[in-house]
Amino acid sequence: MPTDPTDTSLLEQLRKTVAKRPDDLQGHILLSQIEAGLMNFYAASEAQKNVLRIKGHMSTVDDKFNYAEMLIIAAKGYISPEAEAVLNQILSQDPNHEPSRYYIGLLFLQIDRPDRTFVLWKQLLAKSDPQSPWVGPIRSQIVEVALAAGVTDYEMPAITNVEQSEPSDAEIEAAKEMSSKQRLA
Q1: Helix %, strand %, coil % for the chain, to 5?
Q2: Do 50 and 28 form a contact (C-beta atoms < 8 A)?
Q3: What pLDDT score does 185 carry?
Q4: Are 51 and 60 contacting, i.e. CB atoms less than 8 angstroms apart?
Q5: CB–CB of 11/18 below 8 Å?
Q6: Under a CB-based contact definition with an 8 Å cutoff, are residues 67 and 48 in contact?
Q7: How far is Cα 83 from Cα 72, in angstroms, rounded to an integer?
Q8: Mind spelling out the 3-state secondary structure of 16-66?
Q9: Distance between CA 181 and CA 132 in Å, rounded?
Q10: 155 vs 158: CA distance, rounded Å
Q11: Positive or negative CA dihedral for 164, 169, 173, 174?
Q12: I need a labelling partner for 112 at 20 to 30 A (CA). Which of 15, 90, 165, 177 fits?
């Protein structure tokens, strides 16, 4: 909750306003964002659920994913049947939606299907940008997942799809002032 009494009263006013105007799309979007920012993930998921209800068939994959992720975060990483259903809707629209694939892999771990998790996560590691938020968690678990899936010869892939950039003119000039030992470092 906000610590400033003004912020608290504004949040309470927004909550009351959207309760009185259940079809206020902008109000529910704002409420979802604020609640998530305050780490009130259950309240954020409820507001996002209303966003989906109001938008109906016009809901985007991002709208749906925001809802699923708020449910998952509110449940401390547990993929509930409700979150699973939303993730499956997303994947029926976009089978390559990487964050949804990550969470479905996590679901398979929760239901003791490391074989399915391994297949999904191995594909994600091969395709994903190394900076994607799911890459770290996958890399920290995939060897154990592989073993649980019966794959004993799995080797963690090197991070190869990191962009290599050329040094700038300023970096080249700065390097001229360095000793050879410093340049090598």
Answers
A1: 70, 0, 30
A2: yes
A3: 42
A4: no
A5: no
A6: yes
A7: 7
A8: HHHHHCCCCHHHHHHHHHHHHHCCCHHHHHHHHHHHHHHHHHHCCHHHHHH
A9: 34
A10: 9
A11: negative
A12: 90
Helix (H) or strand (E) run with residue 182 in it: helix 180-184
Residue 138 near residue 124, CB atoms below 8 Å: yes
Closest residue by Cα to residue 137 from 153, 155, 117, 154: 117
pTM of the model: 0.79
Number of H helices, E strands in the chain: 10, 0
Spans in the chain with pLDDT lower than 50: 1, 3, 161-165, 180-181, 183-185
